[in-house]
């Protein structure tokens, strides 16, 4: 059988290894000059026009961003249920309540009408997820926020370089979190980067990540240790020089799949949107799980189900709410390999596999 095509593959080269060795030789391993440089270069590279704060994971960034934006116990934050659990977890960790709203069928992101219908007197903001690398409907969502005096918190974990009508994701809300986990579009090994809208949120982010201190032993708030190491930042800085080429390759791979797949629903792209294809997610109307198994068993093609159990049905939340588009997506979605390591032969095997199996009703 042909070699296995994994659904995702981290790309680490000699340049990243050399950067790590440089930091190890320097003796400055914890948060230091590499982190500062990475923060500045990340903001500049993606055209965010705002400060960035590096932390040890995307989830930490989300949690600290909410705390720094004033979210507290008793508040409500509207979130999608069709996302990774970290979205709702980060809200719950502040003591606030995640309120689950439905997604739009076309982009898998928060439905603006569902957000507006979920607003109560306790709502302080909402958190769109730019899922799979496609921007949420930020023009409509920002208008709702302005109308109701609410904050917007962006979960851009999967969307490095995505944009809507020329504005990059990460430049809309009070803050935006980008994940730097190994399988994301770029990585620092592990980590997160948070873009912030103003000086106060930035100041609090820097306090919370470092035990509540700006000046050593003069703690201003009860803080955490969520610092990024210089080792991780050095990896991230190298990856910044490569991510644009990888994104272009993802987009080219996605275009080939969209042009050639039949019998499944391929991911649409909204007008004015730049999709960076963290995942290439199709919809399979009948027996998605059977298709995934047959792809692996018969063609050695990996795939991923993101996310078969919506957040509102997870054990920590268990909320009785009607989210029909969320439930449908959880049944139908299957993410095919789209990563930059794919060869033309790989792409053709994926197309042949999906088209043959979909036609056969796998």
Structural descriptors:
Aspartate Aminotransferase, domain 1; seven-stranded mixed beta sheet; 362 residues; Aspartate Aminotransferase, domain 2; 2 domains; alpha/beta; single chain
Please characterize this protein's 3D structure:
With 362 residues, the chain is of the alpha/beta class. The protein has two domains: 221 residues, Aspartate Aminotransferase, domain 2; 117 residues, Aspartate Aminotransferase, domain 1 (Alpha-Beta Complex), CATH 3.90.1150. It is built from twelve helices and twelve strands. The strands form three sheets. It has a seven-stranded mixed beta sheet, with helices on both faces. Helix 2 runs parallel beside helix 8. The radius of gyration is 20 Å and the shape is globular. The two termini are 19 Å apart. The model has no long low-confidence stretch (mean pLDDT 97).
Helix count from the secondary structure assignment: 12
The SSE string, one letter per element, is HHEHEHEHEHEEEEEHHHEEHHEH
Residue share in helix: 25-40%
**Shape by Cα distribution:** globular
Quick check: average pLDDT? 97
**Uncertain spans:** none
What is the gist of this entry?
The chain has 362 residues and is an alpha/beta fold. The protein has 12 helices and 12 strands. The strands form 3 sheets. A 7-stranded mixed beta sheet has the order 1-9-8-5-4-2-3, with helices on both faces. A 3-stranded antiparallel beta sheet has the order 7-6-10, with no helix packed on it. The protein has a two-stranded antiparallel ribbon with strand order 11-12.
């Amino acid at each position: 059988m042909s070699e296995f095509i994994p659904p995702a593959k981290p790309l680490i080269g000699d340049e990243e290894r050399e950067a790590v060795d440089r930091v190890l030789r320097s003796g400055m391993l914890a948060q230091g000059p590499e982190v500062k440089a990475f923060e500045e270069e990340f903001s500049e590279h993606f055209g965010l026009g705002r400060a960035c704060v590096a932390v040890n994971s995307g989830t930490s960034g989300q949690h600290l961003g909410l705390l720094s934006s004033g979210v507290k116990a008793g508040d409500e934050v509207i979130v999608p249920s069709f996302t990774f659990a970290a979205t709702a977890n980060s809200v719950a960790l502040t003591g606030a309540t995640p309120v689950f709203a439905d997604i739009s069928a076309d982009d898998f992101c928060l439905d603006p009408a569902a957000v507006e219908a979920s607003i109560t007197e306790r709502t302080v903001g909402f958190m769109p997820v730019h899922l799979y690398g496609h921007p949420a409907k930020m023009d409509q969502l920002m208008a709702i926020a302005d109308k109701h005096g609410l904050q917007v918190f962006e979960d851009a974990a999967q969307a490095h370089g995505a944009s809507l009508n020329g504005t990059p994701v990460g430049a809309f809300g009070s803050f935006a979190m980008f994940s730097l986990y190994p399988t994301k579009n770029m990585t620092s090994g592990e980590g997160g980067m948070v873009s912030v809208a103003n000086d106060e949120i930035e100041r609090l982010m820097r306090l919370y990540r470092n035990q509540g201190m700006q000046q050593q032993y003069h703690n201003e708030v009860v803080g955490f240790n969520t610092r990024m190491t210089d080792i991780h930042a050095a990896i991230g800085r190298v990856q910044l020089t490569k991510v644009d080429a990888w994104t272009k390759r993802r987009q080219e791979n996605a275009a080939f799949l969209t042009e050639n797949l039949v019998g499944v629903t391929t991911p649409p792209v909204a007008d004015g949107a730049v999709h960076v294809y963290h995942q290439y997610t199709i919809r399979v109307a009948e027996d998605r799980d059977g298709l995934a198994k047959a792809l692996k068993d018969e063609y050695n093609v990996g795939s991923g189900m993101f996310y078969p159990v919506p957040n509102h049905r997870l054990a920590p939340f268990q909320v009785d709410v009607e989210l029909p588009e969320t439930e449908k997506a959880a049944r139908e979605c299957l993410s095919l390999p789209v990563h930059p390591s794919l060869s033309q032969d790989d792409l053709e095997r994926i197309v042949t596999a999906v088209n043959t199996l979909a036609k056969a009703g796998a």
